[in-house]
Amino acid sequence: MNSLFVKAQQLDQSDALKSARERFFLPEGKIYMDGNSLGALPTHVPARVADAVQRQWGEDLISSWNKNAWIDLPTRVGAQIAALIGAKPSEVVACDSTSINVFKVLLSALQLRPERRVIVSDIDNFPTDLYMAQGINTLLENRYELRFVKRADLEAALTEDVVVLLLTEVDYRTGERLNMKSITARAQAVGALTIWDLAHSAGAFPVALNDCNVDFAIGCGYKYLNGGPGAPAFLFVAEQHQSAPEPVLSGWMGHAAPFAFTPEYAPAASVLRFTTGTPPVLALTALEASLELWQKFSIHSARAKSLLLTDLFIEAMQPLEQYGFACVTPLEHEKRGSQVSYTHEHGYAIMQALIAAGVVGDFRAPDIVRFGFAPLYNSFSDVIEAVARLEQIMKTQAWKAPEFAKKAKVT
Ligand SMILES: *Cc1c(COP(=O)(O)O)cnc(C)c1O
Questions:
Q1: Ligand 1, atom 2, residue with closest C-alpha
Q2: Which fold has domain 2-41+298-405?
Q3: Interior CA angle at 271 toward 265 and 273, to 5°?
Q4: For residue 126, which atom of ligand 1 is closest to its CA?
Q5: Contact predicate 226/245, CB 8 Å
Q6: 67 tagged catalytic
Q7: Any idea which fold 69-295 has?
Q8: So where are the chain's domains?
Q9: Can 222 be counted among the known catalytic residues?
């Protein structure tokens, strides 16, 4: 462990993103390894939100829609996100929640392939994606076959009657990263469309949506993008699909001319047609401010650091495998997102004990402890200190205290 401490200190000294850490509030003594669930608060964000509240809302009131350009927040924020995910600025918009965006793009995909009847996804996909597909199928009177299969069976599931392949790039449990380019190509080879959920990708590493020829994508604003709790999500629609689907969630903000107030719906000729109602200005203000960090710090440096952080963590955790931890995150770099996960039969209690010891990760049923690595603010010394505290908990069996077995509402 001591030699790893020295290695970590050296890595911290040569860290190209060293100064990014000072741009975040990080509670004293705490090691935060849950940025994959809720990103930390950048120090400049509170003042920006306060300005939006006090000056823009308080003084400028409704004139702010024009004067402070509130009305353009969804596209402005979308363009910032586009730069991180390899899309054109005109292909991304910040709006609604990820769940609602799944609903919208999935319905759009179904419209583009009306003769086909199969929706394919990974049975281990994040549940909301699967639930939304189920809800849509209920709405459409079970017209579709929902072919939810194990990852190993995805290729075989891609037959000529598939409308769309709905996948998450990084598995939220194991942290496994799928090969977006080759999977997209395989789906398109049978004429299917693709929807990629970037919840654990955006802000963690560079995504190349255009290069991979992806049709649709969605993702969260509150994870690696640090937009704050419940931050607006985003959606991506490839240029060639922006004029075909007739939005079903056809709100007035997606209308070609919202302020013409005509009774008939006519969709905007841009990605705006996939938006619905009045944008959440305060939440978008926080997200917009957070995203400005990416003008100073590169997403490519973030990826390089993320791999070093996760490599170091996996190395430091090796001696702890004697306590029953088994790494379920792939060791190959190209198959890794920015989190590392272990199974342990007492994972829940162990994570509660670790949180009480000031190291914040999380637990995912049935038996996974997750550690997220946010390259903008996690340091290499954090990694070693976190493992040292975990080792102490395992050695002393501190996790066996009854208070750590009590399940909270949010795990
Ligand atoms: C976190 C996460 C979501 C969350 O969706 P919300 O609508 O924001 O609750 C969706 N998909 C994946 C893959 C996630 O990891």
A1: 199
A2: Aspartate Aminotransferase, domain 1 (3.90.1150)
A3: 15
A4: 13
A5: no
A6: no
A7: Aspartate Aminotransferase; domain 2 (3.40.640)
A8: 2-41+298-405, 69-295
A9: yes
